[in-house]
Fold:
Amino acid sequence: MIHLFSSEALAALICLLFIAIATAAQFFQWSWWCSMTTADTLLAVVSCIFACRGVASGRQCKWPSDVDFTSRVALVTGASSGVGYGVSQELAQHGWTVIMGGRNLLRLLEAKRSLMAKKPSGRLVVLAEVDLSDLDSVRGFAATVLEQKEKFPVSLLVNAAGVLRRHLHRCEDTGLEEMIATNVVGPMLLTNLLLPLLEETAERSGVSSRIVNVASSCHTFLGVRQRCSPGEMLAALHPSPKEGDDKEAKVETPTMEEFTLGNFVGYYGLSKLCVIWWTSVLARRVSLRFFCNGDGRQLKVFVACCHPGVITTHLYRDLFPLPVLDHVLYYPSLLIGKTWKEGAQAVLSICVEADKMVHGGYYMCTGEYGPNSGINCLSKEARNLEGANNFCVWAEKVIEAQRIIPKKPKTGQSVAAPKKIMRVKFVT
Structure:
């Protein structure tokens, strides 16, 4: 999950080398080690920490000096915290108008106040909240954005929202597993609904709009002792009704109390693999619609995804039974991980840089991308075009089915029913 050529891998190597040298020096009682004072030891430790942090911070985005961004509008999901918050801050600091999207309106407004306190040159706007696991919420949010398209002609869409759960949960309206719904299917629907607006903005301005999806190197890890393909994992998460069953009835799945570390991280990796699949399919579809070589037409919408690095955000807050553990582990992990601001740099590079851009590419936090980087940073499954097409067809069917089947009104229920924990049967 930590790419061998990434900055955080090098930071981890520096940390391990320091520990190994200190351990060997103590064991063999080397003379220089024995002669060190307490101040010398503290200086060595502090130097190691600064070296790790300096390396882990990674590559910074190279903002074009000859481009005026004050007329540009961006929509960033997951903007209340983490990478989305960092992207929103940097875009606003460089003059962008940023529409902030998130599932908790209070947290969005708090994030906006925090960013406004930094006195950015751009604007920060909160139009509405959006829960990407709820497709009706996504449609409502997209409708709100489209109603304001004359005021906010969006030219950049950053799908940065994501969740990582210790348990697998089923969404009530679609039956989708929550990580799959929030990390992939919800952003797919939002992107499809806003794609005409992105095309229209590109047509008016003469500058290509961009769609940036936040993926992860976790797509290479699909669980401990993986015994089935990604397609089989998706099928196990979302079984189809058998013939003769009531298709409107909710498909029941067995329950499971706990997931091991390897398994629930594996299903998070599955959701990020689907992000890469969707990005590649979307890029091909956009190219077929709007790009013709030799006739002078410009690509209207540029699409890419990226791995922002191993970031010490509070994405992991749902993994621990006690919330305090999240905060206890947050600061030590900064030794080899990126902050949310540093992690945002890889995303920003795709948003604003113009050199050597690859349509449909997968960018690493080091600035390298996909097959052309000289580093095999995509897994075998991620390069499976048939799997990518099959996933997108399946996801679009789920979206369409949820649209045409009306929700049954809830009577006498003031509090939403708790989501059920799911268990997945592996196909051997």
User: Anything to note?
Assistant: Residues 213 and 305 are 4 Å apart (CA to CA). Residues 261-290 form the longest helix (30 residues).
